[in-house]
Design a protein that fits this description.
Helix 8 links the parallel strand 11 and strand 12. An eight-stranded parallel β-barrel has the order 1-3-5-6-9-10-11-12, surrounded by four helices. Strands 2-4 form a two-stranded parallel ribbon. The longest helix has 22 residues. With about 280 residues, it is α/β, with parallel strands linked by helices.
Length: about 280
């Protein structure tokens, strides 16, 4: 297993250049580019010269000049246009830095109206039909993105999101069946799934399904794993422990070639480094 580290693992936000230097100083050269960094045009240009690194891109990267919430299922045409532009920009960037995987969040039934410190907050859907129409919009826009990415052989993978009781019915792709139906409706080898273990833990508690069975039913589609844990109540992004239930997933024979991304939060580079090297040895 190749072990990556998210740019969002340290609580402080720095420039992308500084974050990469910090990671390299402790031997971390596989990086999942996402939140936790500020990025300039010159830094993006220089990424193509970073031959010592291996990159993936996650969702909201590179960050746009004006902030917005990426939502490929938005009922707002302006948000959809911004989301499509951002996701194709990520695919374009990957093709210049020799990356192969771009992961994106599933769509939201409605656009968020706030953030509670852990998750976005959303208005309640006006009708059960809203989820169906949102899924149709997401599928249409995702199909377009996958077709665009196929030209440069970039893999687009969709992440399972965290579903707590406040978010139930407001985010698409809550269940394994919904993921399976999505992959059936867009039959492309360039489309897959990003399995987020922390999100899965919360969602399984909320909806009352078996975590391992969820994974087993989607094994052929899992192309990368985001690694962090919690107590099942909220998405706390805790490092996984030596006795974590997650190791049952990581040890599955069909996932041995799937890249793994540490996405837990750490108070210092020292703590991140210790966890990275411990996990690297554990996975080997």
């Amino acid at each position: 297993m190749k072990l990556f580290v998210s740019t969002n693992c340290l609580r402080s936000t720095t420039t992308l250049t500084e974050k990469l230097k910090m990671y390299a100083s402790v031997g971390i050269l596989r990086v999942d580019l996402g939140a936790g960094v500020t990025v300039s045009e010159s830094e993006l240009t220089q990424l193509g010269d970073s031959s010592n690194y291996e990159f993936q891109i996650h969702n909201y990267f590179p960050p746009p000049p004006t902030d917005f919430v990426l939502n490929l299922a938005s009922p707002n045409s302006g948000v959809v246009q911004l989301s499509k532009q951002m996701t194709t920009n990520a695919v374009d960037l990957l093709s210049t830095i020799n990356g192969t995987i771009y992961s994106v969040h599933p769509g939201f039934v409605t656009d968020p109206t706030g953030f509670n410190g852990i998750n976005f907050t959303f208005p309640a859907p006006k009708s059960p039909r809203d989820q169906v129409t949102a899924m149709n919009r997401f599928t249409t826009n995702l199909r377009s993105l996958v077709a665009y990415a196929e030209k440069t052989k970039i893999q687009v993978i969709v992440e399972n999101q965290v579903i707590d009781h406040q978010l139930k019915g407001k985010i698409l792709l809550e269940t394994a069946t919904e993921f399976f139906n999505l992959f059936q409706s867009i039959p492309s080898s360039n489309l897959g799934m990003l399995l987020d273990t922390g999100h899965l833990n919360v969602t399984s508690h909320t909806l009352g399904f078996d975590r391992i069975k969820f994974v087993e039913s989607l094994l052929p589609f899992i192309k990368s794993i985001h690694l962090h844990d919690n107590d099942g109540s909220a998405d706390y992004h805790l490092p996984i422990a030596p006795n974590s239930w997650i190791f049952e997933i990581l040890q599955h024979p069909l996932l041995q070639s799937v890249p793994v991304v540490i996405e837990a939060k750490f108070e210092s580079l020292v703590h991140l480094s210790e966890h990275f090297h411990w996990l690297e040895e554990k996975l080997s």
